[in-house]
Amino acid sequence: MNTRRNFIRTTGIGIAGLALTRYSNLYGFPGNSGQIQYSSLRPVIGKRKYTSKAVEEKIAEIKSAISDPEIAWLFENCFPNTLDTTVTYTEIDGKPDTFVITGDIHAMWLRDSSAQVWPYLPLIKNDETLRSLIAGVINRQVRCILLDPYANAFLDGDEISEWKSDITEMKPGIHERKWEIDSLCYPIRLAYGYWKTTGDISVFDSKWNDAMELTYATFRVQQRKENPGPYSFKRTTAWQTDTVPGNGMGNPQRPIGLICSVFRPSDDATTFPFLIPSNYFAVTSLRQLGEISEKITGNKALAAKSLKLADEVEHALKQYAIASHLTYGNVISYEIDGYGNRLMMDDSNVPSLLSLPYLGCIDITDPVYQNTRRFLLSEDNSWFFKGKAASGIGSPHTLKDKIWPMTIIMQAMTSSNTDEIKSCLQMLKTTHAGKGFMHESFNKDNPDDYTRSWFAWANTLFGELIIKVYTEYPHLLKG
User: Fold this and answer.
1) CB neighbours of 240 closer than 8 A, spacing ≥ 6?
2) 313: Cβ–Cβ under 8 A, 6 or more apart, which residues?
């Protein structure tokens, strides 16, 4: 039971309890079948994978400013969860190397690994070992991209994946080969943030440059202007969204300048190949790549063509991505095909439409974004659920009536309304089922019915939210 699909599709208290027991056995905290007087649920010190002095100091600082003991407890458990349980640090040829698992799946996703360590970036100026750890994530991601730019998840070495029977070009070291635009955007985001925080350019070596040339080339091929390109994917499965229509190529699309994404960040197949949030993310990432290439690596040719592609994709987004909604005015579509067909919804995984300001892809005050946000957080969005326990956006990945804490967190992250932020904090506080950690999803009427007990990205993201509230709206944590 160690695949993302199996963990996601298997719900209920029994299986969730087994996952929590596995976590407890590995890392030595007392399995929590209810709140235990808010005692820390972190692994005992000797079993933590990595310890950062700066992170420990930040935990102490913020906990002391939170008057609600349950919120403080959740923060203490969640914020360090990536470091406590998911990272393996070493050096290869004298350079840092960090392998990051997702939690309950022993594989490294380019997306998840970037997002899991992102909230620690502001602290690396005060912790040289933490800086090296994140540099190691960047270096490992470069190796992954060079192995296969179409893969989304990787193994630690030349292991053979349990998905080896997938009908695609599987290689040793690849866990899963689902082409998702964001898989190539996240490493750029992390490296750019690392550089802007530290000024350190040691990660931008010749291998980085080669990986970015491959990233650019993959984006260009997946515009599918001349032909569909080399990528295809099929899987023998009972789950419709776990394989790809069109003989593994996806549904038809008309070349309009956007980039095709065969899968969503949820690892579900797209309905229409132009996944709009990921194309917005690509524009931002290509411009960051252009700046790095111009100012650091000196690859002016890559800088120029990256910026040109960013402009082309942005122009296509302006022309095709926005549509008029009868109730909400102009809103951003989730997926389109270039023929006029579009999907109006959102998915919980980031990049999502809701998360675009968080990723730096759109201004939070943009009127079209605000229209879109009102639509997404309403029952006119077919994947928005409102129940006895909470309200929020779910995902086809976890089926009907399951809300993701990640979207409640992202709702708060993209709001300046203190009442809305306070409401989100309350929902997060009351839906962790007494376990002290964020889950992947929970039933809108029953938080005890949840998926994924050990989902480090959601945990770290919750910590990032609390730090943001502490910085911008400290009074919300005081009562």
Assistant:
1) 269
2) 257, 258, 259, 279, 282, 283, 286
DSSP 441-476: EEETTEEEEEE-S-BHHHHHHHHHHHHHHHHH-GGG
CB 337 within 8 A of CB 253: yes
Mean pLDDT value of segment 90-119 = 97
d(Cα 57, Cα 76) in Å, to the nearest integer? 11
Q: What is the mean pLDDT of residues 67-96?
A: 97
**CA Rg, the chain, in Å?**
21
Domain ranges in the chain are: 4-477
pLDDT of residue 37 exceeding 80: no
CA dist 283 and 115 (Å) reads: 18
**Tokens 């695609």 belong to residue:** 168
439-459 confidence digits (pLDDT tens):
999 999 999 999 999 999 999
Written as six digits, the tokens of 58 are: 């930040």
Do the Cβ atoms of 153 and 322 come closer than 8 Å?
Answer: no
Please report which helix (H) or strand (E) contains residue 189, including its range: helix 181-198
**What whole-number distance in Å separates Cα of residue 456 and Cα of residue 473?**
25
Specify the DSSP class assigned to residue 52: -
Backbone region of residue 103 per phi and psi (left: phi > 0; alpha: psi in -120 to 50; beta: other values) = left
Q: Are 404 and 413 in contact (CB under 8 A)?
A: no
- Could you tell me if residue 203 is left (phi over 0), alpha (psi between -120 and 50 degrees) or otherwise beta? alpha
What CATH number was assigned to the domain covering residues 4-477? 1.50.10.10
Q: How far apart are CA 456 and CA 109, in angstroms?
A: 12
Q: What is this structure's pTM?
A: 0.94
Nearest to 84 by CA among 437, 440, 405, 433: 437
**Residue 5 pLDDT greater than 50, yes or no:** no
Q: Which two tokens stand for residue 3?
A: 């695949």
Contact 457, 407 (CB under 8 A): no
Which are the contacts of 401, defined by CB distance < 8 A and separation ≥ 6? 385, 387, 394, 443, 444, 445
